[in-house]
Amino acid sequence: MKGYMHKIAYVDLGAPSVKVVQPAEETLREFIGGSGLAAKMLWDEKAYRVQPLAGGNPLIFMTGPFANTPALTSGRHAVVARSPLTGIFAESDAGGTWGASLKRAGFDGMVIVGESDRPVYLWVYDGRVEIRDAAHVWGKDTFATDEALRAETTDRAVSACIGPAGEKLVRLAAILNDGRAARAAGRCGLGAVMGAKKLKAITVYGKQETELADRKGLLRSLQQLASGIKKNLAGMTKFGTAGNVSSFERLGSLPLQNWKGSQRWEQEALQINGAAMAERFGTGTYGCEGCVVRCGREVRLHSSTYGDIEGAGPEYETLASLGSLCLVSDLEAVIAGNDLCNRYGVDTISAGALVAFAMEAFERGLISSKDTGGLELTWGNGRAMVAVLEMICENRGLGEILAKGVRQAAAIIGGEAEEFAVHGNGLELPMHDPRAYGSLALSYATSARGACHLASLSHAFERALTLPEIGLAELPDRLDPTDKGKLAATGQNVMGMLDSLKVCKFMLFGGLNLTHMLDWYEKIVGETMTLATFMLTGERIFNLKRLFNLGCGLEPSTADNISRRILELPKQAEGWETRLPAMEQLREDYYKHRGWNGQGIPTREKLQELGLEKEGGAVGVN
To answer: How many C-beta atoms lie closer than 10 Å to residue 532's C-beta?
Structure first.
């Protein structure tokens, strides 16, 4: 099979030792790469039996067959482990150049086990892996770490590293790559897994090419598509994902005031949207490897309050989590909070959700200024928002509680805190309100990693996106729950394949479809994949992740759900069309379409169809 380096580095930091393994080609056909292949390797390591911060929890970095090829937006990689935040399957996807650089260094991926007795980093180049001392960068932020390690390897290298938050085992710690471009494997606390192993960074560089089956044919296909995609996504180039802030506010999708807000926020949204950021602080754009869109924002801020900041600007999720969710309309504060999270290495979605949770706890009197170090943690207080973020990043004071995630923080604070701790399976919700879409609550509830909008992208198929190849030819009624279980499951199967091939999902909005991807696969790998096989493979990958979670002790009867606030508190204001999720109906439809029983367990027949009978037996599903 072309398109692969056919080498995965297996690093045991406890030994310490490095060996190279070659995955079987049949495994590559069945699980592809990216999060699919990583999920298979995590399963084979029996990580569902291991505590998340134990040395035996494998931390897996994986590219896909499209990485380090001319394929559009193929500069992505997945990071997979068992999550210290949720206790179940964790995956996080990152863009930039690190994934393609790892492949150029000679590897499709890396599996890292064990725990070093001292801080180390990995230097990966020319088919080799060195374990090097990292004492001199331990404690440094992600930007300084990247600069220091490139200085002692090569300035053409790129690092994936943790900041002080990962070192301190903050449960929402992220892994940042590409230096000041701040591309992040943000969700699920994978930076804490890296910190527990005392692994500061993985710095990679190489010049190896990936052998393709039909390079000329691939280039012809890309030339025909690139200009159309670039034209269709011109708005994304101009404002990035930040351009969605005001439009999502008009839709009722922008979350407000820890998900309880039902007042319009039109004028405030204008103050933090993409246009405002470009006009006041924008200095340029940047993109991931192979991207013709360049949705990354470069900003420069000179502030008497927050100092001088220059680098990656906040994307939509961050503008919403640090902004509207906390009712903060001060763009300087949001930029400062984003920069703080990038440097310390923290997921901005979860971090903003925790600040908003703390603001409501302060409002209700469950915490006081004594707990906040004298801060008046009131709604809209940008300075207090940034100060609490710093506490979380440093795992101190109130931040030590919040750094455990909203589910555990609510249990510690007690009282009525659990009523407004909004999450799905322990993962704080991303910044799209399920009351504005018929399928989204279900997608959050059943995503393998906890609440995730990208696991199915079903809300996009309700609002703007079609894929006629798989029967999604028309936009359904956005709020009607009918057939939304089928929509969520179908979306999860498709997105699982994009996460495994390594394709940016934004390309679907630009006109990329499944037929294009199947054509690229044949020209890269040299084998034909039918649409039916594409969908079956995505289904196999999703079901393996489900089995992994069952092995972790997940109880579908309670886990396939999200917080009561979303299910019971209406969100109503003039101009919004919203509806409370019909969760019971959605779940029933979903289980039926999945071929699972009424308790959310894959049936023996379904596992046989997917070739997962052995895996099902290992966790008592038979």
So the answer is: 8
The DSSP bridge pattern shows strands 59-62 and 77-82 to be antiparallel
Q: Evaluate the CA torsion angle 157, 140, 356, 52 in order and state its sign.
A: positive
pLDDT at 74: 87
Element containing residue 499 per DSSP (H, E): helix 484-501
Residue 178 has a pLDDT of: 96
Token pair of 447 as six digits = 């995503």
Q: In this structure, what token pair is assigned to residue 522?
A: 């044949």
Angle at 70 (CA atoms; ends 21, 91), nearest 5 degrees: 50
CB-CB neighbours of 513 under 10 Å = 16
Across the strands, what pairs with 203?
A: 123, 159
How many angstroms separate the Cα of 533 from the Cα of each of 29, 64, 339, 539?
A: 10, 17, 43, 10
Global confidence as pTM: 0.97
Look at residue 392 in the predicted model and tell me its pLDDT. 98
Which sign does the torsion angle of CA 256, 262, 268, 274 carry? positive
Phi, psi of 292 (to 5 degrees): -100, 0
Q: Could you write out the three-class secondary structure of 474-486?
A: CCCCCCCCCCHHH
- Judged by DSSP in three states, 428 sits in strand
Residues 341, 573: Cα–Cα separation, whole Å: 32
* Alpha carbon separation from 401 to 143, 366, 539, 547 (Å, rounded): 26, 13, 38, 31
d(CA 543, CA 362): 41
Cα-based angle 424, 425, 426 (whole degrees, multiple of 5): 90
Residue-level pLDDT at 622: 79
Q: What is the distance, to the nearest Å, from the Cα of residue 512 to the centroid of all Cα atoms in its chain?
A: 21
Q: How many helices (H) and strands (E) does the chain have?
A: 28, 17
DSSP secondary structure string for all residues of 252-283? T-S--TTTT--S--HHHHHHHSHHHHHHHTEE
Task: Dig out the tokens for 53 from the structure.
Answer: 């911060």
Beta bridge mates, 284: 298
The number of angstroms, rounded, from the C-alpha of 337 to the middle of its chain's C-alpha atoms is 19
| Number of Cβ atoms within 10 Å of the Cβ of 216 | 9
* Under-50 pLDDT residues of the chain: none
CB atoms within 10 A of CB 231: 12
- Specify whether the CB–CB gap between 584 and 83 falls below 8 A: no
Please tell me the predicted confidence (pLDDT) of residue 75.
Answer: 87
User: Would you state the structure tokens that stand for residue 159, as one six-digit string?
Assistant: 């690092």
Cβ-contact 196, 169 below 8 angstroms: yes
